[in-house]
């Protein structure tokens, strides 16, 4: 800001200095001779320089002394003003030179950065090509070996005959495994499945092991306070897995868990506060600010208070259909500027898309200890699309949950997203871990198609372990959470002790039956019992508001499970009397 004043200041100083110099040198302050010129009648007073001889007609000559101090002062002022203008003009020139040098340096650094990025991309492509070539080469060798054994079975007999008994058993087992996995291995690189090929027969223990692994992958997401990234193509079951995690969290913490969601569709996410980015971006940004404000509030709490408070009150921010959101933020919402709060308390005006990425990066890096997590659902398998995970450290701060599924009825879907993840060293850094996943993948893929259940690949950022398995059938549990937490009423279900405790949390099934029996003994009708004791059909906000379905079915269930025959007889008599 100060540099902008250099030019007008130096110009003003030069002008003022020139005026002072002219005044100093004009002779106004020199000594003068004053006389009366008698050539005129009356005589005229005239003042001339003392160095000029007066005329003969001059009379009454008087010498007027000059003001040397004033002339000296004016000269010094002129010198000072001119020197100041020179100094300031020098500062202006130096500032412009510095700006020019900085621009040259920035341009040089940007050129080097672009060169480094291009070199890294080239290395990535070379490494990826090398990995694919090695995989293809290994598959070709395996295929040739199998073809050779099929066409020349005597070779297998000859090889087995030369091996000791222990090696014979190992070879037989390895051959059986190879035969079971040959079809999936052939299609590993493309991720596609030939639905017309005969089903691969896999033993039940392998199926049980993979389903157990899938359950472990889902269960591992419930306890963690890390952020989760759900990656998978449409129809791979991301919404069900996300709904299961949210439902179990809500069931465990109740109203203490705070759920917020930014989505593109009209979904509910277990009762979360939802904003639709394509409908009202202001509401979505307000949700984002709520989460960031609470995160920073927790970070500022004393450690003794923070640990207990955060443990009991988790916060989850859900970004569903993340790639569609990013496209919207980079197109029609690209010019939307928001005031984003910095940690210092100041506000910075930035694009809405940058605010989303800054908030998510802060949640990923700082939210784990504070029990503030981000759950992101995306269809992209490219980590570069998740801009808030801009570094390897960012990727290790989240749990990656890949899901893939081939629906044979609809003839859609593939397993490419998981096969690419297994071969990507930026996802699975340990070469031994990648090799272990490669060995499990063919069998898991065949079982996923055979059982028509999604395959899952989950990372555990704490230990570096990856889990590859088959997702168990969680649809009934998912629907139950939808009914409980999203206000959806399922009219076709059987009453159980658990459901009674959910709908009537302040009482037990036994005490509820006792109250019904007492009211019946007092002569209250079945209809009034259902309306008053069970509160069905009375309060529209009550989850058992249906009189004809929930009320009667609950009454019958209580009678069937707790009555000794007395209440059933009274109710039957009441029905006959009416």
From TrEMBL:
Origin: domain of life: Bacteria
Name the UniProt record assigns to this protein: DNA segregation ATPase FtsK/SpoIIIE
The organism of origin for this protein: Nostoc flagelliforme CCNUN1
Lineage: Bacteria, Bacillati, Cyanobacteriota, Cyanophyceae, Nostocales
């Amino acid at each position: 800001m100060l540099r902008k004043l250099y030019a007008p200041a130096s110009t003003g100083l030069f002008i003022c200095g020139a005026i002072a110099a002219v005044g100093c040198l004009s002779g106004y302050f020199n000594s003068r001779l004053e006389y009366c010129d008698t050539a005129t009648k009356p005589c005229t007073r005239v003042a001339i320089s003392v160095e000029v001889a007066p005329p003969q007609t001059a009379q009454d000559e008087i010498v007027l002394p000059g003001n040397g101090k004033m002339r000296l002062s004016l000269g010094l002022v002129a010198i000072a003003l001119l020197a100041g203008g020179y100094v300031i003009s020098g500062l202006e020139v130096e500032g412009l030179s510095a700006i020019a040098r900085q621009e040259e340096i920035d341009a040089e650094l940007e050129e080097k950065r672009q060169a480094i990025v291009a070199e890294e991309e080239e290395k990535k492509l070379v490494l990826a090509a090398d990995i694919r070539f090695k995989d293809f080469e290994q598959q070709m060798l395996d295929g040739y070996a199998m073809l050779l054994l099929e066409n020349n079975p005597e070779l297998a007999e000859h090889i087995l005959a030369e091996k000791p008994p222990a090696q014979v058993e190992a070879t037989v087992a390895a051959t059986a495994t190879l035969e079971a996995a040959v079809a999936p291995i052939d299609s590993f690189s493309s991720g596609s499945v030939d639905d017309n090929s005969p089903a691969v027969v896999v033993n039940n223990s392998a199926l049980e092991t993979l389903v157990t692994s899938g359950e472990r992958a889902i269960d591992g997401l419930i306890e963690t306070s890390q952020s989760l990234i759900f990656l998978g193509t449409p129809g791979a079951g991301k919404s069900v897995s996300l709904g299961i995690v949210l439902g179990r969290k809500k069931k465990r913490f109740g109203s203490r868990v705070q759920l917020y969601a930014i989505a593109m569709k009209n979904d509910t996410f277990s009762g979360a506060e939802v904003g639709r980015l394509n409908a009202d971006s202001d509401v979505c940004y307000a949700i984002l600010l709520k989460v960031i404000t609470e995160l920073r509030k927790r970070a500022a709490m004393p450690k003794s208070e923070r640990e207990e408070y955060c443990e009991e009150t988790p916060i989850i921010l859900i970004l569903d259909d993340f790639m569609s959101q990013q496209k919207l933020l980079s197109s029609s919402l690209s010019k939307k500027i928001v005031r984003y709060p910095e940690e210092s308390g100041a506000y910075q005006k930035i694009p809405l898309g940058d605010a989303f990425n800054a908030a998510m990066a802060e949640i990923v890096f700082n939210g784990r200890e504070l029990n503030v997590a981000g759950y992101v659902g995306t269809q992209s398998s490219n980590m570069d699309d998740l801009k808030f995970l801009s570094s390897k450290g960012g990727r290790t701060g989240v749990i990656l949950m890949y899901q893939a599924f081939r629906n044979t009825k609809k003839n859609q879907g593939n397993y490419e997203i998981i096969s690419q993840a297994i071969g990507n060293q930026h996802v699975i850094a340990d070469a031994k871990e990648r090799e272990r996943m490669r060995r499990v993948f063919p069998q898991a893929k065949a079982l996923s198609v055979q059982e028509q259940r999604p395959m899952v690949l989950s990372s555990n950022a704490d230990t570096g372990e990856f889990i590859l398995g088959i997702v168990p059938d969680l649809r009934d549990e998912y629907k139950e959470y939808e009914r409980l937490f999203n206000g959806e009423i399922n009219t076709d279900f059987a009453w159980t002790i658990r459901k009674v405790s959910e709908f009537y949390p302040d009482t037990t099934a036994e005490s509820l039956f006792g109250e019904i029996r007492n009211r019946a003994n007092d002569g209250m009708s079945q209809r009034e019992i259902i309306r008053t004791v069970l509160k069905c059909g009375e309060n529209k906000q009550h989850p058992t508001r249906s009189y004809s379905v929930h009320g009667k079915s609950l009454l019958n269930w209580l009678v069937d499970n707790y009555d000794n025959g007395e209440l059933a007889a009274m109710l039957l008599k009441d029905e006959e009397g009416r």
